[in-house]
Amino acid sequence: MAEKAAKTSALPAEMENFLRSLRSERNFSAHTTTAYRKDLAKFVRFLGRIPNWKIIDHPRIRAFLTHLHDNGLNKASIARTLAALRAFYKWLAREGLIDQNPAALVSTPKLPKSLPRVPSIEEMNGALDSAMPDNAAFPERELVIFELLYCCGIRNSELTGIRLDDIHWSEEQIRIRGKGKKQRIVPLGDTAASAIRDYLPKRREVLALSKKSSDVLLINLRGGPLTSRSVGRIVKAIATDKGLSSDLHPHTLRHAFATHMLSEGADLRVIQELLGHARLSTTQRYTQLSPSQVLEVYDRTHPKAK
Predict the structure, then answer these.
(1) Can 279 be counted among the known catalytic residues?
(2) Of 110, 225, 260, 276, which is least packed with CB atoms within 10 Å of its CB?
């Protein structure tokens, strides 16, 4: 049975080489690489044979996406699958294995524009200003997690990748390693800096007890690096205890960071830089404002409204 499972999960050599390139050359997270692997495996199963990449055209890819839709896959997942195929075919072209990218001719499914609700500014301030719950496994670390996710607007994978030498105390900044090996500098606010300073002595105690050394900022109670999955569990548990939505996850805090900054009148391009978005359109989709907030910012900032 295990042997059969191994065979069905195997991918053509080109796909395996492509997935390896995502980690080594483009610094994709393990989570994204695993998702791409699953998407590509679905495509291979749909084709039903060892593919000849040169003869697969865009109608064939469109038929595959229709197949996914007919089997109940939502539009967001189908869009991600198409993104995986586009990236794979782009890699094939770069390697000289095909002449053109048929996936580029397939339109991305239109996604709903509804955005998840983010906590209000008051809710976030209340959660950060109150003590961590008694059942928090490592309260000093948990506060650092919330402070960095919300006050710096970083991704979960970026959070777990922070090293001690990424913190520039004198400049009050922190270096963030984003997608595609891109780096950016974001401000380290006073409350986040204070939380880190309170955490570091406890971190040293954990490392001493575990007899380990690490240059990663966030560690688990065994002295190893904290994983993105663990961060997700911690955020959900702490949020529930503090009366926030039980659906809260690390990306919600990043979304709240952008939404709250925009609602307070921050320039959209500044938010784009802080979030590490390559395109302004991504930042625009990522933020949400109520009509009353838009009107308030207009009244406060437009010369003719004063």
Answers:
(1) no
(2) 110
Q: Is 286 a catalytic residue?
A: yes
- Is residue 211 part of the annotated active site? The answer reads no
Sequential DSSP letters for the chain: -HHHHHHHH---HHHHHHHHHHHHTS---HHHHHHHHHHHHHHHHHHTS---TTT--HHHHHHHHHHHHHTT--HHHHHHHHHHHHHHHHHHHHTTS-SS-GGGGSPPPPPP--------HHHHHHHHHSPPPTT-SSHHHHHHHHHHHHHH---HHHHHT-BGGGEETTTTEEEEE-GGG-EEEEE--HHHHHHHHHHHHHHHHHHHHHT----BSSB-TTSSBPPHHHHHHHHHHHHHHTTS-TT--HHHHHHHHHHHHHHTT--HHHHHHHHT-SSHHHHHHH----HHHHHHHHHHH-GGG-
State the catalytic residue, choosing from 26, 90, 179, 202.
Answer: 179
Catalytic residue status for 254: yes
Task: Dump pLDDT digits (tens) for 195-237.
Answer: 999 999 999 999 999 999 999 999 999 999 999 999 999 999 9
CB 179: neighbour CB atoms within 10 A? Answer: 16
**Could you say which of 277, 285, 300, 302 is catalytic?**
277
Position 156 confidence tier, pLDDT thresholds 50, 70, 90: very high
> Whole-structure pTM over 0.90, yes or no?
no
Whether 283 and 271 have beta carbons less than 8 Å apart is answered as: yes
Catalytic residue among 37, 141, 155, 255: 155
CA distance linking residue 197 with residue 191, whole number of Å: 10
